[in-house]
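Notes, p. 3: input format for complexes.
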Amino acid sequence: MNRFAVLLFLLPLLVFSYPKHVKEALRELAPGVFGVFGTYEQVSRKNRGFISNAYFVITKEGVFVVDALSTYRLGKELVETIRFKTKLPIRYALITHYHTDHFYGAGALKEVGALLIAHPWSEDYLTSDASKRMYEARLGLLGHKLMRGTRLVAPDMTVASLVTIRMGGEVFEVHHLCKAHTDGDLVVWMPRRKILFAGDLVFGGRVPFLGSGNSRTWLLCLERIREMSPEILLPGHGEPLYGKEHIMRQISWTGNYIRDLRSVVRRLYEEGYSVEEVRKRANDEMLKINPEYAQLSVFFEVNPVNAYYVYFEIERELLEEQR
Ligand SMILES: [Zn+2]
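Output follows (323 residues plus zinc ion):
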């Protein structure tokens, strides 16, 4: 190999390396508003589970954090990242939903005195068998070293519909809009600054995961987000979204995907296909409606899983309609 060929071979490695510390993924998004951005992947040892985003807002009286990342260790790095920017107390840590990649780092925030806020659904989740199975699965994927110190921490305060928190001249409205990605999603709205921390309700360029919430009411949630008319939308995964038009387009993408999948699954269900057959046909049927779905990140892996879950939702809905 000549020198040029060696360089070409090494280039992808030089361009992309996983952050060794969360601080390396830090960006200022608006004055006083910061985010750390995980890679757009499934959890692996390579990415250390750093696949989701977390945010923090520095006010004159303290820090408001949104989400806690995937492990205690990443949560600790998040605290160190905040400490790098300010010595003010970390007063609140809001968990948008109790999925592993958003709350497993919460212990590190609680340790430094943050009040943990989540939806009451988190308490059902923590006592469920599913949460134990998920923990074992994460341990298997990441190993003891990366998972060290990770505990399933319960919230200190729950929000079932709306709570407004004022701190240091900023207003944080914590809303449960409706059941969507999970049965207990929360979003944080800063009304004066028109910034929305959307958790996993809106995905930019990625297929949303429909396996543990309600796809029908998710569509209603998206309408409520539209009405809020955010100028900056900060998602649980992927890039921050700026500008009303761009945000509306991404909301439409998420909504269209959910609507199309529901109609595909409903049709196949009514034609008598089994859940296994629906799962197998889901990708082809969706691509017939819109070939651009193929470009969405993780479409081919996640879409059949979504179809599987939506099948049972549609079944429940149809039974209800007949009653
Ligand atoms: Zn999630």
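The pocket of zinc ion is lined by residues 97, 99, 181, 200 (CB under 6 Å).
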